[in-house]
Structures are given as C-alpha cells and as structure tokens.
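Troubleshooting entry. Yesterday's outputs looked truncated, so today I'm pasting the complete records for two proteins to confirm everything comes through intact. If either block looks cut off, that's the bug. Protein one:
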Amino acid sequence: MTEGTGGYYKHPHSLVETNQIGAGTTIWAFVHILPDVIIGENCNICDHCFVEGGVKIGNNVTLKCGIYLWNGVTLHDNVFLGPNVVFTNDLRPRSRQHDYTLTETHVHFGASVGANSTVLAGVRIGRFAMSGVGAVITRDVKDYALVYGNPARQHGWVDERGDKLVADGPGQWRSNSGVLFIEGDNGLTRKVDK
C-alpha cells in the first residue's frame, strides 16, 4: 500500500486520477477512479471497482468488490454496497449515443444494498433502507424499508442495525430494543422522546 497526499491509502495496483479523497479512505487493488470524483473520509473501496467522473461518495462508505459507479450516482454517508451491485445512469441506452439524458441516483445515509442487486437510474434509496441479495430495484425505496425480489418489493421495515421491526399499532413500528418508529410518506421516522 502507498499513502496518498491527502492521508488516504491506495494499493500500488490501483489507478487513482482524482485528488478529492478524504483522510482515512482505503483504495484496494485494481480499482480505477477517474478525475472529478469526490470521495469522503474513512471509505473502503475494495478490489475491482470502477468510479466514473462526476460520482460523489460520502464519508464512511463501503464498496465491496466488483462495483461500477457511473456519473450521476451519489452515495451519501455510511452507505454499504455489497459485492457486484450494478448501477445505471441512462434510461434509454444506445451504443455510441453521446447526447443521452443523465439520470441521477441517490443512495441515502446508512442504506445497505445487497450483493448482486441492480439499481435502475433515477431511483432514490432512502435512509437506512436495505435490499436483499439480487434485488432488482426499479422504483424508490422508502426510509427504513426492507426490499427484495425481482422486481424488488417491500417486505417490511428495519432499524439502523438492519433488524426487522414489528407492528405496534396503526402506522407504528417498534425495534427489538424498544425504539418506536412512525410511518409517513417517505418511510419511517424515529420517534423522539420529549
């Protein structure tokens, strides 16, 4: 491993063309990161990943092996992507068509996307949402939602640890530790005691 100028580490067999990388980030072998990529602090980018220019990666993000991120993808803080997660950024791709409309995709704080999942361009994956392995995510995923299948459908709610929540009255869900969540339009919110 060699140290980057900003206090991050990169494997000697990686190709890093951006200088916008936060301290404590680790970039492993056979990773290629193009110019104009922004990567936060304390990220872990595993072997055989590709990151195209224009991608934004927050702090404490984990990319497991074999992930390709295309322009228009934004990963917010604390996101986890399992091995071989696939993203797209063009809803009507054609070979050698360079005037396509870039469709942005956001994976929000604390979300986890399971291994071999495919994410359609333009999808919003909410805070602390979780997808099962092999999910084909073709529509927005609400905050704290658990989705899986092809196409991915919601099969419950999870807390910040990924544990399933249980119903606790109309529009209310409770974690194993007793935390209450209230259902709203964008998913769940944690009830704050006053």
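Protein two, checking that the full record survives here as well:
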Amino acid sequence: MTLQQRILVADSQAGAVLFLAMVFTGMLAVLAGTGVQFGLLESRMAGNQQLRLQAAQQVEAIATELARDAANFPLDLAPGLALCAAQDVGDGCYPDGGALLEPPSALVAPGVQLSYRVTRRQPRLLHKLALHEEQGQVSGSGHFALAVFEISVELIGGDRQGSAHIVQGIAVRVAAEG
C-alpha cells in the first residue's frame, strides 16, 4: 500500500471513532438515568411502606389502650350505638354525650385525621357460651354471658403521611344475674 492510499484510508475513517464514542456515551447516559429513576422510585416506595407501618402501629396502640379501659364498654349501651372520640360525636354515637377519653397515643401530626369509636354489637348478650378459662380465673360455671363490642380506629394521613384502619372485637364478661 502506497503512502497516498494510506492517507486516503485514514481520511475516510477520521471521525468514526469519535462517532462511536459518542454513541456509547449516550447509551451509558440513558442507562445511568434509568438506574437513578429506579433508585428514586424504590426509595419512595420504602418511605411509603415505613409511613404505613408507623400508622398501623399507632392505630394498634390506640386500640390496645381503648381495650384496657373497662369504662369504654358500658353494658347499658344499646346495640348499634357507639362511644366516639370527642371530635367525632355524631352519626351512630351515643346521644347522651358519652365520649371516649383520648388515649395518650392518640396525638397525631397536623393534617392527619384520627377517628376512633367503641360500638356495642348484636346480640345484646351471648348466653351460655362455653369458654375455656385460665386456671387462676376458673369460676364455678363453665358457661356465662358476654357482651360484644367492636373497637374501630382509623388514621388518615395527610401529605407524606401513612394511613391505617383497624377493627378489633372485644367480649366483656357479664356478671351472673342472681
């Protein structure tokens, strides 16, 4: 190959390497951008899951606190009526102004809606229900009456907050009528 032919070949390839380098750089930029987008999406999903878990833990704590207070389960409450949080008194709530005291774990961030209630369920009493009792609580009879209640706690998060709802059943043992 002569010098003239070598110069012609070099002139015809002068820019091909630069073009290929630019194509590969562009492909790498697209791949990097896609990776960053997936990383951000996964980060948001993990944050949302954490907020949901925090909300679920809070409603569970509120339901547990409500269940521990025997005053929240009045036996004179008619089936279908509820004791509601002071801010929720209204639809289906006890008409005589009976309201639940706010549990300590019921403090929520601004913009978050919290609602909780204890509802008396039908039938008025479950009679002669045979239940196994712990050894320290055994009574003379294996049958007794129960009043059934339902605790409902709902937390609706605002912007960048989690939401959760829990319903928990409670059976209250009714003293034997003499």
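Both blocks look complete. Sanity check on protein two: The first strand starts at residue 82 and ends at 85.
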